[in-house]
Write a sequence for this structure.
């Protein structure tokens, strides 16, 4: 068992995500699936979203894109801005550099919560499904700022081309 985990709980219409360890695209499919399930209804399961990154040691652009997608879903459903807890200065600088502070309320404190959370299983996904998830995550990053658009457009264009050619 690796030390990367994505934990989730929904209590009284508050959805809690706890992401720990090294967050790479290889373990992102479960979170992507959960985000889609939570927001596929017209009335989403979440009235407030909280993300805890205090135990994350690394986060790649795919996971950052999933966070952007999560925030976008909250906006689309007129929910409050999601709250993001993180005491990791490097991760905070990275997230702020990619404009996630424009769609999340950052709290640079430990959470000290004792919520019973369930680990998400990453599930089996085809290479095509993984590619589409990575593409959606990076498209969400493009929408946050012109700087992100310039930085990630070549990646998005390449992913689109590869997915069409497969």
């Amino acid at each position: 068992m690796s030390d990367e985990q994505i934990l989730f709980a929904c209590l009284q219409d508050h959805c809690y995500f706890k992401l720990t360890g090294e967050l790479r695209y290889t373990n992102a499919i479960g979170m992507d699936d959960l985000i889609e399930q939570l927001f596929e209804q017209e009335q989403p399961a979440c009235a407030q979203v909280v993300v805890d990154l205090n135990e994350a040691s690394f986060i790649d652009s795919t996971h950052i894109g999933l966070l952007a997608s999560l925030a976008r879903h909250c906006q689309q459903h007129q929910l409050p801005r999601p709250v993001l807890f993180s005491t990791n200065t490097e991760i905070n600088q990275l997230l702020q550099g990619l404009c996630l502070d424009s769609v999340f309320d950052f709290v640079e404190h430990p959470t000290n919560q004792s919520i019973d959370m369930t680990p998400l299983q990453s599930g089996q996904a085809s290479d095509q499904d993984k590619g589409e998830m990575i593409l959606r995550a990076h498209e969400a990053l493009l929408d946050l700022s012109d700087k992100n658009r310039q930085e990630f457009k070549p990646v998005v264009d390449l992913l689109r081309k590869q997915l069409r050619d497969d």
Observations:
- The beta strands are 5-11, 14-23, 48-52, 56-59, 83-85, 105-107, 118-119.
- The first strand starts at residue 5 and ends at 11.
- The longest helix spans residues 146-165.
